[in-house]
Amino acid sequence: MKKWFAVIGDPIEHSKSPTMHTAWFEEMAIDAAYIPLHVSADNLATAVTALKTLGASGWNVTIPHKTAIIPFLDELDELAEKMGAVNTVVRTAMGTLKGYNTDGVGFVRSLEEAVGTAHKDKPILLIGAGGAARGIAFAMQQQGYMNITIANRTVANAQAIVDEMGVGCAISLTEAEERLADFAVLVQMTSAGLATGSFAMPFSLERLTKGAIVADIVYNPLMTPFLQAAKAQGATIVTGLGMFVHQGAIAFEHWLGRYPNTNSMIVQLQAQLGGQE
Ligand code: NAP
């Protein structure tokens, strides 16, 4: 039987996952389909039953279901369990459902692809403490990044992640702006700069150190106001597109046992999102 996969979320129209996975199936001559499904919070239970009944081999989970999906799954991967959030569901050979979270590892992979690993023991500033930030903080810790500070509008949310990690420290956005010269790598993980958003920057980058690496996980627009300001200050910038493509590629590998071509996908999506950095 032809395999099929899906992404469930609300809203879902904006998702680039169907385009990406369908292109990989074609490129790798895999007889499979991937469809976007609009699933509201009220319909999650019905949707999971339908996905199982209709034989989906796996699916991605996006806002607002990343935590709500957990009670419907039989098993969680260690990182997903730690994060309390799932973005990938695999139907195992036994027919059970296993949840993974590929966002954080996807980010680390894209960062290291862009700038290598020489900065691994340098001071890192993570800005934001929402769901994506949580995944990235845990994945960075798991991959050996030890010197992590988390800044957030609501410091208590940053502190909660730090407490769970057992290392690092939590600071306010104002303190982060004042201490910017202390950090070698900055990762912008709030919803600032989103094409649909109303706020553009978590803080000013005037005090950014020369030679800093600045990443943003927002990828639409590709060049967020934060990255534009960092580039103007001479920083090496990393857009959020690599994270998006790698989180999808890791999900693809969980489903099909093969890693797709991420480089050509980044080029294709870059063109759709308005070209080069
Ligand atoms: P979330 O859970 O809603 O967290 C939002 C974060 O932004 C929180 O830290 C929040 O601070 C902060 N924030 C929101 N409005 C703010 C404001 N006006 N001033 C200062 N801080 C503000 O969202 P998420 O799921 O973590 O996603 C964050 C972003 O990452 C989204 O834009 C999403 O598109 C992007 N993302 C990208 C990828 C990718 O593959 N590249 C994957 C996942 C997510 P408080 O804690 O104070 O509320």
Strand content: 15-25%
**Which CATH class of the largest domain applies here?**
Alpha Beta
Distance between the termini: 42 Å
Helix and strand content put the structural class at: alpha/beta
The number of helical elements comes to 10
Uncertain runs: none
| Mean pLDDT score | 95
How are strands sequenced across the largest beta sheet?
Answer: 2-1-3-5-6-4
CATH fold-type name of the largest domain:
Rossmann fold
CATH architecture label of the largest domain: 3-Layer(aba) Sandwich
- Sheet having the most strands: 6 strands, mixed
Bulk shape: globular
What small molecules does this complex bind?
A: NADP nicotinamide-adenine-dinucleotide phosphate
Radius of gyration: 19 Å
What is the assigned CATH homologous superfamily of the largest domain? NAD(P)-binding Rossmann-like Domain
Indicate the percent of residues in helices.
Answer: 25-40%
Beta strands, count: 12
